[in-house]
Design brief:
The protein is mostly helical. It is built from four helices and two strands, in the order H-H-E-E-H-H. Helix 2 packs antiparallel against helix 3 and helix 2 packs across helix 4.
């Protein structure tokens, strides 16, 4: 939910926005994190061949992309943040895939 949608929802419900519930926007984050997120978006996604489950980012070309999007930031720091973001997305994709698998009816003989 965007900040604007949150404010519109509060207005429609006649409630006061709570500071702790106002969604964070990209521009609220430190510049360094914005640069790392842009770098993350540029990395290629990898998916499992048959299931289509997200396996994480490919880090081929990381050094070149680092030089373009965040040259002032330490490479190791960037890589640690990128790997952390990747681990969260991989975990989320795994949970969603498992949930989908449970909801899919089994075929006869399985």
């Amino acid at each position: 939910m965007t900040r604007q949608l949150y404010f519109e929802m509060c207005e429609a419900l006649g409630t006061q926005p709570l500071e702790s519930e106002i969604p964070i926007e990209l521009e609220d984050l430190p510049t360094e994190i914005q640069e790392i997120l842009e770098l993350y978006r540029q990395l290629e996604d990898r998916y499992a061949e048959f299931s289509g489950v997200f396996l994480g980012k490919s880090y081929i070309g990381f050094s070149q992309l680092h030089e373009i999007f965040s040259p002032s930031l330490d490479k190791v720091f960037c890589l640690r943040i990128l790997r952390y973001i990747d681990s969260l997305r991989i975990e989320d994709a795994s949970i969603k895939a498992e949930r989908q698998k449970k909801m899919t009816p089994k075929k006869v003989g399985e």
